[in-house]
Amino acid sequence: MNLLQHRLVRMLFLDRRPQLALMVIMLIGFLLAIFAGFFGTPVGSHNFGIVFVWIAWWAILMLIAVPFFGRGWCSICPIPLPGEWVQRGAMLAPTGKTTRFGKLRWPKVFRNIWLQNASFLLVALFSTVILTIPKVTAIVLSAFLMIAFAASLIFERRSFCRYLCPVGGFIGIYSQTAPLEIRVIDNAICVDHTEKTCYTGSENGYGCPWNVFPPGLVKNNYCGTCLECVRTCPHDNIALNIRAFGADLSKPHGQKLDEAYKAFIMADAAAVYSLVLLGPWSLLKNAAFNVGSFEWAIYAAGFLVSILIALPAFFLLSVWIGKRFSGSIQPLSKLFIAQSYAIVPLGLIAWITFSVSFVFTNAGYIISVLSDPFGWGWNLFGTSNMNFSTKFGLIIPWLQIGLLILGCLWSIRTSRRIAAERMDESQAGKLNAPIAVFIALFTTVMMGLLV
Amino acid sequence: MSTLLTQNTGHPTFLKLLKMRKYRLTRWFTSLAALIVIAILPANVLSLSRAQQREVTLRAGDFGYTPAVIHVNPGDILTIELVAADAAHGIAIDGYDVKIMAFPGQPTSVTFVADKIGAFRIRCTVTCGALHPFMIGKLIVGRNDQFIKGILLLGIALTIMGIRSSHAPKARVLT
User: Fold this and answer.
1) How do residues B5-35 score in pLDDT, each as one tens digit?
2) Do the chains contact at B132 and A45, CB–CB below 8 Å?
């Protein structure tokens, strides 16, 4: 179903002002978080920077935005905003004038998400400190803003979002599961349209900021849902479709090792965080927190080995067994990459279940910091003493169990579908069996860590 | 060129196949029924231990509790003595109406009946430092009921999925 068929929705999305208004609000919140981090209380649970970024924003991102809107967050993210204004020389619609910024193409060797994988791992290695110390959160947020700005001055379009942002990387991979997509309605119209304004821009809008050629869109990964193509298409040939969850995952187009690895990095990181942050072992928490210590080095090594080697190796083993069972003549590497996309729903659900644990419990802090955002002793709305709550303690495990089972079934089904794209049903079933065991084991481990 | 069509398999020994299918179905449904029975069994039916009075000294410090996990039997009258080792700490137990705090050198106790079965997180109630939101312990009453039932539910779900896929119309490659 194309949402843009509805006049009101179309009007709302063609108008740049509501989107800009949301981005500006987010930018103010972002700058406030940086200010609170540098000048507010060092107690994380009473600092706007920590509470709003790592509890409120994270909850909205992982529980609503990513599962239902894919890259919906990217369409209102404030990080690329200042750079984009400078690059375009305009805040709203194109003015016709050109600037000298952002002219270089992103280096070809880095036109993949390996750098995003690396940037996520870098943040993840220090995450226990980032999550709990306001000043470190402020430094990280400022760094995001500055790197994005610098990238916009040098490289064309949203190079930071597309190739560097550690958050954008995983939103992209999980956006394949979202029930929303931007696609061309009729490719024949695009063939006849020589100007290709969706990519080059027009007086109505900018060429795709994500450097995507909309007629070639088959997956959500790199479409930032900014809706510029809707504004620039003179034939109203772009649709905003509602579709089935996970529709992109079994498509055999553009399956790559960098994306496959992203799926493992994310799934394993959710497990490691659940073990370290939500488990009862203070030794692990302190090792992850004391950056630079010997214990931290051991933790970091374990983290990287488990993410980059152990989990992919176990998965490779299950694909190899499946290949032997099924008698498939396809190369193991191709089967491994294709089947890795089955881990995407599992990883998404693992993150949702991990987030449910601390978001529900710590939601009280959101109301508390509204009254005292910097921890300066204010009590603006009389809610500054609100704390965490244990009243969801009995419901949360059952919610997590339900979600994890759903994720497990969804992943197994996806694996089967991916296999069925490449071989007949009986072969697909045999290839799928050991992968289903892998998925069920991962689900069991997550259940053990969270429940 | 081969075409993939979805249709029922048409092997010659139809009766034999029907019997095999019946056997397979019975096997699937027996395992499914067994899993459901275990999943809905109340935890205390499986717990053979007797309730007793228990005292646990819980040391709070370094953003963790020692012991990290407390095991008791369902119905035990549990006394927790909270000893704050480095700064003020507290405990609140998910699902239980238990909340106390202690200062260094001033232990505090709480006594309650561990009448809810399963695993429950113990959380620090006093902002004690950077890792405070993640200062977590665990109380296991009887068995980790939620986890065991979760695994059984997963088993049921996978069994149902198995039944559905093994009895779904098969696709055959027709040339």
Assistant:
1) 334 444 445 556 556 666 666 766 776 777 6
2) yes
Query: Can you give the pTM of this predicted structure?
Result: 0.91
**DSSP character for B105?**
T
Contact between chains at B65 and A282 (C-beta distance less than 8 A):
yes
List the one residue out of A393, A404, A412 whose CA is nearest residue A447. A404
Tell me, what DSSP letter sits at residue A56? I
**According to the model, what pLDDT value does residue B9 have?**
46
Characterise A89 by phi-psi region: left (phi > 0), alpha (psi -120 to 50), beta (else).
Answer: left
Contacts of A280 in chain B (CB under 8 A): 64-65, 68-69, 121-122, 136-138
From chain A, pick out residues whose CB is under 8 angstroms from the CB of B119: 397, 451
**φ/ψ bin of B51: left (φ > 0), alpha (ψ from -120 to 50), beta (otherwise):** beta
Give the residue-averaged pLDDT of A333-352: 97
Q: ∠ CA A49-A54-A59 to the nearest 5 degrees?
A: 130
Using the beta-carbon criterion (under 8 Å), do A289 and B131 form an inter-chain contact?
yes
- Per the structure block, which two tokens stand in for A398? 């059952």
Q: What whole-number distance in Å separates Cα of residue A54 and Cα of residue A138?
A: 12
Question: Number of residue pairs across A and B with CB atoms under 8 Å?
Answer: 124
Closest chain A residue to the Cα of B98, Cα to Cα:
A390
Q: Do A426 and B153 touch (CB under 8 A)?
A: no
Beta-carbon separation of B131 and A128 below 8 A: yes
CB-nearest partner of B150 from A132, A283, A401? A401
Q: For residue range B120-137, what is the model confidence (pLDDT) as tens digits? A: 999 999 999 999 999 999
Q: How far is B94 from chain A (nearest CA, A)?
A: 5
What Rg, from alpha-carbon coordinates, does chain A have? Answer: 23
Residue B89 makes CB contacts below 8 A (sequence gap 6+) with: B60, B61, B82, B101, B102, B124, B125, B126, B128, B135
- Count other Cβ atoms within 10 Å, centred on residue A225: 24
Q: Where do we find the tokens 């659940």?
A: A274
Token digits for B115? 């009448």
**What is the β-pairing status of strands B53-61 and B77-84?**
parallel
Answer yes or no: are the C-beta atoms of A168 and A119 closer than 8 Å.
Answer: no
B154 touches chain A (CB under 8 A): yes
Helix (H, G, I), strand (E, B) or coil at B141: strand
Interface test with A, best of B56, B71, B126, B131 (most A CBs within 10 A): B131
Is residue A169 a contact partner of residue A73, using CB atoms and an 8 Å limit?
A: no
Residues in CB range of B110: below 8 A, 6 or more apart: B79, B80, B82, B91, B98, B100
CA–CA separation, A37 and A137 (whole Å): 7
Comparing alpha-carbon positions, the chain B residue that sits nearest to A364 is: B133
Cα-based distances in Å from B143 to B45, B71, B73, B99: 12, 8, 8, 23
* Range with the poorest average pLDDT among A50-54, A205-209, B49-53, B72-76: B49-53
Structure tokens at A243: 């579709």
User: What confidence tens digit (pLDDT) does each residue in A433-450 have?
Assistant: 999 999 999 999 999 999
Looking at the complex, does the CB of residue B23 fall below 8 Å from at least one CB of chain A?
A: no
Side-chain half-sphere CA neighbours of A183 within 13 A: 16
Neighbour count for residue B91 (Cβ, 10 Å): 25
Chain A contact set for B65 (CB, 8 A) = 280, 282
